[in-house]
Amino acid sequence: MSDMTENKTDPSPCCSNCDYTLAFWVLRGWLAVRAILTGVEKFGAYKTIQQPLLDPATGQPDASGAMVELKVKFYSMANYSGIPAGLKGKFANESLLPPFALNLFDHLLGPALIATGVMLLLGLGTRISLFVQGLIYMALTVGLILIHQDDGISWLGIHIALVAFALVLAKNNKFAILKKW
Q1: Ordered per-residue pLDDT tens for the chain, 181 residues
Q2: What is the distance between the alpha carbons of residues 166 and 160, in angstroms, rounded to a whole number?
Q3: Taking the domains of the chain in order of start, what are their residue ranges?
Q4: Directed axis angle between helix 150-169 and helix 18-41, to 10°?
Q5: Are 132 and 112 in contact (CB under 8 A)?
Q6: What are the backbone angles phi and psi of residue 31, rounded to the nearest 5°?
Q7: How far is CA 21 from CA 18, 32, 84, in A?
Q8: How far apart are CA 24 and CA 126, in angstroms?
Q9: Backbone φ and ψ of 37, nearest 5°
Q10: Which residues contact 157 (CB under 8 A, 6 or more apart)?
Q11: CB 42 within 8 A of CB 81
């Protein structure tokens, strides 16, 4: 009789870790998308274009020939900037950051985020990609500490905690190309 009671409360063997697996998939997906889109945004810029003012009633260009300026976002390799322009000057004035390291980080940050994000999304070396993302967020944290950007430091701390939690849950990774890594 006690065996029947125990079986009713125990989850089925095929789904004993479903919650952990689902939690890992959600976290893996979020971290992957976050990294990919952050990396892609490093290639984005805005340009201003002029368009004719449209009459709201007819949808036709205004008869007076009035123009409006619109900011349009576009992506290009020529736009790439790993470190935002507003922060480059602050980093350049920081004596603990050698110029060669800052230049290298500026060139590699976007591609590294995209690569680790795609790897994580596909399950290609999940643990390695999570670990590298953690290292990236730690490096970004060091930079923000040196230029006293406390709000950014807090956000990066949350990212590092999410990466660490994903590493804890990685043993529940059911769909991966390189499961061991």
Answers
A1: 444 444 455 555 556 668 898 999 999 999 999 999 999 999 999 999 888 888 787 878 877 778 888 899 999 999 999 998 888 888 888 888 888 989 999 999 999 999 999 999 999 999 999 999 999 999 999 999 999 988 899 999 999 999 999 999 998 888 777 766 6
A2: 10
A3: 16-43+80-172
A4: 140
A5: yes
A6: -65, -35
A7: 5, 16, 36
A8: 11
A9: -70, -35
A10: 141
A11: yes
Please report, as a single letter, which amino acid is at residue 85: A
Burial of 13 (0-12, 13-18, 19+ CB in 10 A): exposed
User: What number of other Cβ atoms are within 10 A of residue 45's Cβ?
Assistant: 13
With beta carbons less than 8 A apart as the criterion, state whether 148 and 91 touch.
Answer: no
Answer whether 16's CB lies under 8 Å from 101's CB.
no
